[in-house]
Every structure is written in C-alpha cells, then in structure tokens.
Design the sequence.
C-alpha cells in the first residue's frame, strides 16, 4: 500500500522533472520578452524524435543526443531571429498567434519527416534499483538528474553569473538595462537559446520512457505552463517545486483514479489555481501611470 | 465666425433611407453570399460542395472567435471545445432521447454557452495570456471527458444521427444541407455585425485602446467581455450542431486542439475584428486544408494524417508578420486605391482659426443631484502605501457640490495617487471615498462613473482606433442603455444617433467641431486634452476630476478652458482639479487643498492657503520671504 504510494511518487517526481525543465524555458522567455511560448513543448518533441532517429540510423546514443540538443537550441534561436524579433509591437494576442504558428509548423514538419507514430530514444545506460520494494528505473534517475544539473545550472546562471544578472535586469528594468549597455537583442536570443536547450534536454531524457510524438508537444508545454503558474511564474525555484508537485499529483490521479484522467488533472489544477488565487498569479503587475 | 461643417443628422432622413444607409454594406454582402450559396449546388463538383458546406459550418465558430478576439481582445485556444460540446449535446439528445431537432439544437447551443459562462466567470478577470492557456486546457479536458464517459460513447463517439427534415423535406444531400445552414450563417453574421457597431461593441473596442479610460466612463469591462465570451461559445456550439447533422458521427476528434488552431487561423486570415473576414477566412482555410491534403502527399510520398498543418503554421506566421490585419486589411487598402472609392476630404484649414474667439457658445449638460454647498464627495482617512513608502497619508477632505476644489502640491506629493484612488483606478490601503453617499473606493472605476463621477488623465488616455467624435461619443456610454442583446438585434439606432448628435454639440462648445471626424491620434497634444475634457463632460457628470487639464494647452486655450470650468460651476457641476499652474488654480478654485509628501498640509479658500506659511515653505522652497517673492512673481507672469 505504502510502497505503491512511494512508487507513484517516484514516477511523479521523474515526470515532474520534465515539466520543471519546460517551465524553466517558459519563464526564461517570458521574463525577457513577455511572450508565452506555445512552441516550448515542440522543442522537447523535436529533440526526442531527432535523437531517436539518429540513434536508429547508427549514431552513438550520447552523440545523437548532443547533436539533437544543439540543433534544437539553434531552432529556438532561429525562431527568435526570424519570427519573434520581426514584430515591432508584441501584444499578448500576436505573441500567442505567432508562437502557435511556430508550434503548428514544427508539428507538421515532425509529422512529415518522422511519421505519425510515437518513437523512443533507447534507454540510457544504468541499472534499475530496488529500495524497500520500490523499484526505481535508471532512466528516472536520468530525468531527475537532468533537472538537478540543467535546471540547477540555469538557476545558478541567473543568480550568479554576469550574463544571468543582465538577463534579469532586462526583465525587470528594460530601459535601465539598455542604458547600462545590455543589448536587448542579445538578451532575447539568449533567453530563446535557454528555452530551446532546456526543452531539448527534457525531451531526450523523457523519450525512452514516455516516447516522443509529433503532436505531443502542446500537451507537454501546457503542463510546463501549469507548473509555472503554480509557482507564480516569476521564480524558477517556485516553478520547479510547482512542476514536481504537478508530476506527483498526476501520478496519484493515474494510480488511484484512472490513467485516462491523468491529463485532466493538470488543467483542473490550472483552472482551480486561476480561480482561487488569481491575484498571486499576475505574471508581472503592469504599472499603468495615469 | 465659426463655420461648422455639420453632417445632416441621420434622424432627419426618412426611416427607410436611414436603414438603407446604415446597413448598405451588410445588405449587399449578405445578398451576394446568399446568391452564391443558392447557385453553388447546381454548378460545383461534389468535392467542392463538401468544402463549401464545411466552410459554412466552420464560419459559425469563426465568427464567434472573431468577436472574442476583435472585441474582447482575448484569444481562445479552445474554440473546438465549445464546438464539441454543442455537437455532442445535440447528438446525444437526438439519438438517446429522441428529442426533436430544434429542441436538441437549442440545448446544444445553451450547453456550450453555460460551460463558457462557468469558465469565464473566474477567468475573464485575468488579463493577457491566461484565457488563451486556460481555454487550451479546457479543450483537453473536454476531449478527455468525452473519451472517458459512457454517455459520450468514449472513443467511438455518438453515431447514427439522422438528417433533419424541414417542412417535410428530408435534408439528405449536400445541396439541401447548404441551403439549410446558410440562413443560420447569415443571421449569425448580421447579429455579429450589429454587435460590432453597437454601444457594447464600441465600448469593447474602446477598452482595447485604453481599458482605464473606458472604465472611467462607466464601461463594465468584465461583464461585457464575459458576455462576448459566452456569445462566442454559442456560435461555436451552433457550428457543432450543424457538424453533427452533416457528419452524422461525433467523435472525440471534434474537440481536437488542431481544430481550434484551424478556427483561429480562419479569424487571423480574415482579419481580427472583421466579421466578414471570419467568413472569408473559413472558406480560405477549408480550401487551403483540402489543397494541402492533396499536394503534400504528392511532394512527400507516404505522408499521412494532419499534413495540412504545415500550411496552417506557415500561414499563421506569415499573416501576423506581413499582413497583421488579414484579408480585411488587404481589402480596405485595395478599395482605397480604386478610382471610384469615396475619399474623405483632407483635414481643413479652419481647425486653428476658431480659437481666437474666447467666448463659450454653449454649455454641455451637467447633472446636479445635490444642492450647492451640500457635501458631494467625502474622503476620509485615505492612505496608500507602496511597501515602506507612504504615497498618500490619512487624507481627509469634503468637497461641497457646485464648487471647484484645486488640489496642488509639489511633484510627487501624491496628487495623482489621490485622484486614482477617488476614481477607482487604485485601491486604497485604508480609508474610504464616499460619493453621493455611496462608498466607491476599492471598486472598479466604472462603479464611480455609473454614479456620475468622470475624470481626465494626466497621461492622456485617448481611444486611438476611432475619431474625435467617437471618443466623445464614448463619454455618452453612461447615458445609454442598450445592452449586448439589443445591440445584436440592431434595436438602438435612435439612441445611438441621439448620442452622436449630443457629442457634436459638446465638441462645438469646445471648438473642436472641425476636427470631429479626424482620427483622435492625429490631434495635437493640447487638442487631445480638450477632447478628453469633452469626453468626460459628455457623460453629464455630477463630479468631474481633471488631472492637469491645462498642461500642454496654449494661452488662449487655457483661457477658454478656465472660462468653461467657471461656467460649468455656475451650472452646478462640482470639479476637482490637480494642476501645476498655481496662478490658474488660485484664480479659479473656491477651495484649495495642498498635499506635501502625501500629507494634507492645508485646506481652505485660496487667500488663506496662499498666506499659510506651511504651504509657502513646503510648496515653494525653504525661506519664507524668498518663496513669497517667487509666488507673487509667478502670479504676475500668469
């Protein structure tokens, strides 16, 4: 009974790690550009399908993953340069339509290139372990490890490094940031690069268990958004906690209620949170001077 | 001499002619659409017929989404969810309960609207991206729900829906079906067009320009947006009802995210805010999708499934990048280039001439609910803190009716913060504002406005998407009564033209008649300020809050403004103004209140405030004698 609970918790934490990485990518872009990137989930699927295809055609696993992650990071940068940067006045309306367009385009490309079937990257090396009746798959360690290393790295980057601080400055005081010489173009490119990178990492570590599907990105990206909202959408740490919570809640719903309802849980939580605490969820209060 | 170019008031023409003029475009457009739909079944191939039928079905959710995006400025990424709710409800009621078609269809539409109401009640309060993502989530919930529920037939869905019968004729082929659906699309189109031009529709487009200004004129943004959201779900539900009839099977795929994307694409291609665009977009997207499904497998052998998404994604991006106004923008640009298109005369040269004359010809109406001298506005203990900073500290003030109160103070003294708390733009940390015995503090600006309090803004809040008279017309919002339903039915022409005439009158009294039909954003800064005053006066307020009405005005304009304010006071209007021009305030106001560092340091008639040593020191500098010298010098200059 209790081992079941622990088993679900482990599954939830590993799945939550994937959501957390996506939430980190969403927040990175949102803080700098005030764009909620609907294509965030597609980054994960693109990296997953890409590395599955590369390994299937004979490339060593880690080389394939590396190539896929770098490619997706470049795709994210290209998205910023070729599309997002071309719009002078990005309103929430246009940013949603644009990133939705990119998301749809990426989905169609994945469908055309890799077909409609779900594909998985081979399991990463490692051994499954059994502690007190709870079995933890090695891939789940990889997923949680990816969050610790990459997610933690991004948080450290933002808090400690010069570039990270510059990015935060851009988000909080765009005009002041420009005056002290932080280029808004560079900040925007960097933010999208981070989004592409973390999305791709999430996609490849989850792919061996959860598989990658051309149309799976929207749902996954939306889970990342729910996590970001749960965490208040301003801090990476809070969003990561929110993502892990979401992963666990989903696992419990799937385990105790019914696996078909698992995806519904996330959105019920989203709507519930938006209803109960909307004031705490305002992304960044826009001060209107009148 | 003023030479006003007043257009013939619409109500002077005969009713039949007025109807024709107001609705010419709609009638011609609908005529062409109906004629096409009558002819198509006789000429088109069966595959084209199929596309046309689906285009007409999807035009309904597209019109709904267009209203939501164009009017409420919100995106729904879950339009397919409401479409599916309509389709499922209709199908279940037909097949399991054997209800008559019209009843099942009506309940289907109502079900979609009810769900939208439940979701919208909490969510329409939120701005920005939340509605988009919440509706995206709703789409998934609906899809999961119908897949897991026995009543909705799980993954198989509902099948065996029989075709409707109209006047004994079974609608059993595509041609009949097209004729069956066309009247509904045309009616929906007319209702939507009416709504965009109605009082509610104009209010919503004002909200998109400046939510604060619109609310300060009495627009209840939340309620209006919620109504439009529910309405847009109703359109989607109706589309779903027809879809269930046409396809005869309703599966979880009707709630698919990709369907929501294609509906969104119809709206984006057609042009946000253009109802006709949504219909044209529905046709284009259906043809595009069908074309892509033919072409893509030819280019990429073996490609199956939703390959049309390639085209959808590219078109979405390209339209926003290259033609953000969609087909509507393209059509208007093209129309203006045609030689026979009616061109508006260029702005005339009279605009500046009229300001030499400083007499005020007419006075806008004011409402005087309490006798002069009675308290109309009572401010008690008003405080605003930002973290550790106290912007306004325990301000107590009573404003008697029929007088002008000048609120002065150095920069950063908290004057505008005070104003914002009075008008409802800001919620005070503590303290209350009572207007006409109603507590209005901490509520939205439209509450204060509905009781007769309007304001202008230090940083101008102009409705840029309309002309000058359109701005002033928005000031009449409080005086109108037509709601969404009346607007859709087009039963408010008389009310609208009366308000329009009143707006012209007010512009005339402030010498802006010549600029009435110019775009509001083309006016000079000073004229925009005067226009804001006109807009506030159009509401026939009992209390007018003016935030620096003289800033940016020329000397002559200032004199006209001051004279207008005096006359308005004589007519019974109560005015509170924040102003930097101390001399103007001293000569104009009956009472002067001085704020310094958020604290009310003096309050009384201009003479006693002028001589109050605390004021002089706080306001003008350190040394009393020096400050007095400066003050008198200032007044001499003015």
Sequence:
């Amino acid at each position: 009974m209790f081992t079941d609970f622990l088993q679900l918790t482990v599954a939830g934490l590993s799945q939550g790690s994937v959501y957390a990485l996506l939430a980190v990518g969403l927040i990175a872009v949102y803080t700098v550009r005030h764009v909620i990137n609907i294509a965030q989930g597609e980054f994960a699927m693109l990296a997953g399908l890409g590395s599955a295809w590369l390994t299937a055609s004979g490339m060593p696993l880690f080389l394939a993953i590396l190539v896929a992650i770098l490619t997706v990071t470049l795709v994210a940068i290209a998205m910023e340069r070729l599309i997002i940067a071309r719009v002078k006045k990005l309103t929430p309306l246009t940013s949603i339509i644009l990133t939705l367009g990119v998301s749809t385009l990426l989905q169609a490309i994945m469908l055309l290139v890799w077909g409609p079937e779900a594909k998985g990257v081979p399991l990463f090396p490692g051994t499954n372990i059994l502690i007190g009746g709870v079995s933890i798959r090695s891939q789940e360690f990889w997923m949680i490890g990816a969050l610790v290393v990459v997610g933690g790295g991004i948080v450290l980057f933002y808090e400690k490094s010069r570039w990270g601080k510059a990015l935060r400055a851009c988000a909080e005081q765009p005009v002041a940031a420009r005056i002290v010489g932080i280029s808004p173009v560079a900040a925007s490119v960097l933010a999208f690069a981070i989004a592409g990178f973390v999305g791709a990492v999430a996609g490849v570590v989850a792919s061996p268990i959860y598989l990658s599907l051309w149309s799976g990105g929207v749902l996954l990206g939306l889970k990342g958004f729910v996590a970001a909202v749960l965490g208040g959408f301003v801090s990476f740490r809070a969003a990561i906690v929110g993502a892990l919570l979401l992963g666990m809640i989903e696992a419990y719903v799937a385990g105790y209620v019914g696996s078909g309802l698992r995806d519904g849980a996330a959105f019920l939580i989203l709507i519930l949170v938006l209803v109960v605490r909307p004031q705490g969820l305002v992304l960044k209060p826009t001060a209107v001077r009148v | 001499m003023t030479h006003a170019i007043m257009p013939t008031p619409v109500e002077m023409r005969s009713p039949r002619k007025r109807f024709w003029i107001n609705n010419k475009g709609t009638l011609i457009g609908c005529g062409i659409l109906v004629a096409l739909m009558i002819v198509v079944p006789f000429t088109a191939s069966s595959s084209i017929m199929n596309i046309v039928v689906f285009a007409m079905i999807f035009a309904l959710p597209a019109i709904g989404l267009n209203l939501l995006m164009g009017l409420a400025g919100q995106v729904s990424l879950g339009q397919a969810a409401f479409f599916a709710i309509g389709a499922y409800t209709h199908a279940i009621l037909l097949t399991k309960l054997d209800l008559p078609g019209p009843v099942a269809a009506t309940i289907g539409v109502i079900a979609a609207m009810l769900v939208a109401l439940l979701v919208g009640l909490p969510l329409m309060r939120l701005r920005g991206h939340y509605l988009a993502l919440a509706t995206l989530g709703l789409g998934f919930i609906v899809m999961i729900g119908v897949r897991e529920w026995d009543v909705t037939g799980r993954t198989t869905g509902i099948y065996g829906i029989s075709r409707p019968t109209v006047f004994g004729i079974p609608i059993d082929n595509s041609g009949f079906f097209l004729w069956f659906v066309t009247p509904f699309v045309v009616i929906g189109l007319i209702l939507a067009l009416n709504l965009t031009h109605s009082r509610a529709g104009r209010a919503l487009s004002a909200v998109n320009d400046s939510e604060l200004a619109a609310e300060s004129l009495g627009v209840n943004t939340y309620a209006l947006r919620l109504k439009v959201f529910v309405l847009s779900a109703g359109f989607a539900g109706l589309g779903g009802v027809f879809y269930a009839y046409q396809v005869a099977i309703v599966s979880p795929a009707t709630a698919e995210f990709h369907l929501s994307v294609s509906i969104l694409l119809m709206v984006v291609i057609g042009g946000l805010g253009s109802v006709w665009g949504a219909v044209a977009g529905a046709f284009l997207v259906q043809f595009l999708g069908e074309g892509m499904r033919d072409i893509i497998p030819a280019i990429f052998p073996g490609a199956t499934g939703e390959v049309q998404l390639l085209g959808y994604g590219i078109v979405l991006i390209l339209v926003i990048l290259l033609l953000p106004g969609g087909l509507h923008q393209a059509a208007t640009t093209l129309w203006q280039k045609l030689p026979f298109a009616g061109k508006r005369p260029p702005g005339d040269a009279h605009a500046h001439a009229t300001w030499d004359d400083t007499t005020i010809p007419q006075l806008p109406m004011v409402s005087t609910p309490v006798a002069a001298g009675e308290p109309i506005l009572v401010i008690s203990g008003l405080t605003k803190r930002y973290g550790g900073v106290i912007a306004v500290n325990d301000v107590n003030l009573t404003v008697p009716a029929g007088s002008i109160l000048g609120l002065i103070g150095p920069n950063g003294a908290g004057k505008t913060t005070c104003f914002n708390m009075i008008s409802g733009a800001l919620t005070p940390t503590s303290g209350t504002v009572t207007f006409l015995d109603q507590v209005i503090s901490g509520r939205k600006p439209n509450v204060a406005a509905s009781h007769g309090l309007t304001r202008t803004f230090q940083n101008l809040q102009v409705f840029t998407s309309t002309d000058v008279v359109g701005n002033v017309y928005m000031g009449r919002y409080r005086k109108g009564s037509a709601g969404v339903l009346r607007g859709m039915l087009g039963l408010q022409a008389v009310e609208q033209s009366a308000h329009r005439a009143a707006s012209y009158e007010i512009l005339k009294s402030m010498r802006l008649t010549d600029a009435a039909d110019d775009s509001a954003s083309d006016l000079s800064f000073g004229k925009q300020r005067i226009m804001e005053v006109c807009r506030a006066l159009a509401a026939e307020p009992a209390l007018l809050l003016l935030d620096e009405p003289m800033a940016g005005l020329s000397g002559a304009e200032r004199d006209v403004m001051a004279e207008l304010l005096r006359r308005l006071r004589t007519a019974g209007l109560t005015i509170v103004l924040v102003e930097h021009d101390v001399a103007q305030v001293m000569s104009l106001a009956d009472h002067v209140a001085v704020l310094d560092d958020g604290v009310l340091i003096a309050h009384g008639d201009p003479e006693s405030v002028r001589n109050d040593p605390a004021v002089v020191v706080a306001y003008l500098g350190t040394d009393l004698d020096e400050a007095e010298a400066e003050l008198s010098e200032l007044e001499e200059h003015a």
